[in-house]
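Review session, final week

We close the course with one last complete record, chosen because it touches almost every idea we covered. It is Phospho-sugar mutase, a protein from Labedella phragmitis with 560 residues. Go through it on your own first, then we will talk.
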Amino acid sequence: MTGGLLERATAWLEQDPDEETRAELRSLIEAAESGSADAESALAERFDSRLAFGTAGLRGELAAGPNRMNRVLVAQAARGLADWLVANRATPSIVIGYDGRKNSRVFAEDTAELMAGAGVRAVLLPRLLPTPVLAFAVRHLDASAGVMVTASHNPPRDNGYKVYLGDRDAGSQIVSPVDAEIAAAIDVVAAGSIADLPRSRDFEVADESVIDAYISRTARVAPTPPTAQPVVVYTAMHGVGWETASRVFEAAGFAAPVTVDAQLEPDPDFPTVSFPNPEEPGALDLSYATAREHSADLIIANDPDADRLAVAIPDASSDTGYRRLTGNEVGALLGWRAAESLTSPDEGAPEGTLACSIVSSPALAAVAEHYGLEFSDTLTGFKWVSRAPGLVFGYEEALGYLVNPETVRDKDGISAAVAFLDLAARLAAEGSSIAQHLERFSETFGHFASDQISVRVSDLGRIAATMTRLRDEPPNHVGGVRVERIEDLAGGFGALPPSDVLRFRLADGSRIMVRPSGTEPKLKVYIDVASTEGDLAHRVTEAESRLAALRAGVAELVGA
């Protein structure tokens, strides 16, 4: 083992306060010193690079070393963020939240102690809570910043560290150049030992009034008590959503949902799902079984930190008896609901902006045009969606929705659930359903169909090579349809900041987006088509046929 690698690993070991990761790292060092090539390779993978701090904060597997999530890395991040706050805010303050993943509370308390030790007023939320509550608390407590310890819907062995800004950022996630400035401050801290960093237990613990205020404000998303009560199944996906969501549902006047009991309480091992993401195959199987047992009209699922929402409705053609709606379908219906709520015969033209990420369906733009509202498409991520001027509703296709921007400036799976329950209850009172409402959407705005292809790679160079090839040798046709123009967002495009994204505009109005994933080793391709001619049956048939042809062409184009 090289001396430099051994020196870095030993220095890390000496400052690590966690007995579990200390034992793990000590074992690797001893094995590498005894000549184990596997142990040396494992050390090199952990110590030759570090988890990069960016606009998504930090996220990675729990283990020892700078390229993993652990108490040393979190301490470095906390002190670096504290130094940035002291340098950039006159009276720096921070509120800290955490979910039910392994070490979430430990990382949160470490952060509170280090913030207090650095002279930052630190407020720790009283217990494990959803991410939207932390985003709300940043504004509610008028804090300079917020930290949420969560890995959202990542695999069980992961954890993460999300950073929000208060003041004029109103509780939104950080964006460039702040991320780079904080990262530079973290690097300075990482040059020393966290054992030398001052800590203090002189931090505050928020009282229940913060959660009560969130519940009260979120319940108002449903403006009137429901006159019909659809049978609803709810799952928390082993996360922290249930306690808060159930109180919000009750405050809004909804009947208690049927719960998927095996997934209701927080469990960092996520025993009933291999991947705690409601988008993943099999993740909703227990929900489907529960819904069949109770003949449910609707399934509502939050991801583990409850910032995302999944919805499923009855579908006799499905083997499970239910169909999960896509993020674009839910986004379109909630966007339509938002637009309708702004329209009043006694007032003038509605005002406000509907916004979605550039990889989400063009359906929301059609809604905005129909109602005379502004429309904004943003880069991927709610750090961008939440900053759209005049925002009244925003979403991204990965199950993220922002329905009450005056309360929470981030995606919120609980407030979105309230909005969707309100829509379902209103439709039920009218003798209608979500499925019928989707058909009315297609009749009113056109039928929009979307698909996605993800190419997972073991060599990240393959992703860069594919993006370079598409730029240097762009296709003339995809799926038999002529490519009319290609918009390269690498240097920025219109009001959009630079991003490694290619947008293909096809002659029939279809759109293809290609980008590397920001969090996984994947190349992601998004395909969108729309049909506005003929009756509903014709629109659906035409759109689905064109979508299938484009999917085949895209798969060939990117080697899927």
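Two points worth writing down before the exam:
The chain is about 40% helix and 20% strand.
The first strand starts at residue 58 and ends at 61.
Good luck, everyone.
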